[in-house]
Amino acid sequence: MLVVVLYALLFPLVSLTSKVFVHVRTQKVFQMLLCFVLLFVFFGFRDITVLNDTPHYYGFYYLKSLYTSYRNESIFAFHLSDKFEYGFQVLVHFLIKYVSRSPYTIIIFSAFVITISNLWFIQRKTQDVAMTCFFMLIGYVFFMQYCVIRQAFAIAIFYVAYCCYLEKGRNKGYCLLILLATLFHTSALVLLLLPLLKRIRPTKRHTLLLLVGALLLTLCLFQLLSLFGLQDSVYYKVALQKETLSIFGMMELAIMGTTVGTCYGLHRRIHCKAVDRNVYAVFVLALSVAIMLPVFSFFSRINDYLWPLIIVIFLRYVHSHPTDSVAVSHSQYHLAQRVAVLFIGCVFVARIAVVSTFRPEWLHLVPYRFYDFSNHYHYYHLYPQK
């Protein structure tokens, strides 16, 4: 665990070191380069025992690379038995046929794409790239993204859809990109709700109605899932067999509520205008999903799309300045920001500490090891195993 802690502390160190440069643009480029190295090396060369889903994707790639018939057929062939979305099947087929048969290819390629997409998104939204990376690391975002490889590709597409289309009011282009993202992970379909939620005026009354609606939806969630033919899903059966509320779900609800509540508190303190509708749509969808998590914790995958946005929004509030029409002194304003950063930072660290201590199987982060390229046999070649 000490290795992970020291690794996380390198990001604030990069942020501080960048201050030696006078120009802000130079600081940003310096941070981006070092953050790319830190993220890509740590996650791109991890052992296949690190992070839950790593051995499964590794094993899937290895198994497919063994078959000559698979390598000879079209990369656009669809295999229903693979149980993966079509876009991901095409990607794996392309990598095996034209890049490398080594199963580690999927790990290093996905790490490269995830790192580039996150840095692209972060540099568009914030000035301090390194500190944003730090919060996304302790906020569990990076650990999840490098773990859930298929969904991470969908998240990369969502970044483009949100920044280049939804924020600019180009809803048709946004929806088309989200449909493209579903080719890598079907959970992206839920993101089609954002343009609809964006149309709602941000008021307390509307927010209360939406959250109450999410609560009512939770009460009849299993009936609705059955209606859509999902009663045979493993996730459905596991959730139905639980006699109590999910501890993980309640923890996620508390953390999401705390983070969004802190953002709203900072907004009220330093702004007089209404919350931006894009931000409002993200907040409402994230809270609505979080309300369902104690009953059906597997919906946390939906909020994996939204957490990067929420962290960036939080940090933008932390670094923003009060408007002239708001009666707040600079000392009060800076104090509120410092308290918010420390508070949310402690909440994020506490979550990782709790998970690592009581549920290490959720992440498989410790012990951290680099991949041994000299070893040509791995236990995880015996795919699949759960």
Query: Rg from C-alpha positions?
Result: 22 Å
Q: Helix and strand succession?
A: HHHHHHHHHHHHHHHHHH
Biggest sheet overview:
none
Helix content: 55-70%
N- and C-termini, Cα separation: 24 Å
Arithmetic mean pLDDT: 88
What would you call the shape?
globular
Number of domains: 2
Question: What is the SS-derived class?
Answer: mainly alpha
- Low-confidence region ranges: 381-386
Question: How is this fold's topology laid out?
Answer:
Blueprint: H1 2-17, H2 24-44, H3 54-65, H4 68-72, H5 86-99, H6 105-125, H7 129-138, H8 141-147, H9 149-166, H10 171-181, H11 194-198, H12 204-219, H13 221-227, H14 234-241, H15 247-270, H16 277-292, H17 300-318, H18 330-358
Helix pairs in contact: 1-2, 1-7, 2-6, 6-9, 9-10, 12-16, 15-16, 15-17, 15-18, 16-17
Short account of what is shown:
With 386 residues, this protein is mostly helical. Helices cover 67% and strands 0% of the residues.
Describe the structure.
It is a single chain. The chain has 18 helices and no strands. With 386 residues, it is mainly alpha-helical. The chain folds into two domains: 1-147, no CATH class; 200-369, no CATH class. The radius of gyration is 22 Å and the shape is globular.
Structure characteristics:
386 residues; mainly alpha; 67% helix; disordered C terminus; transmembrane
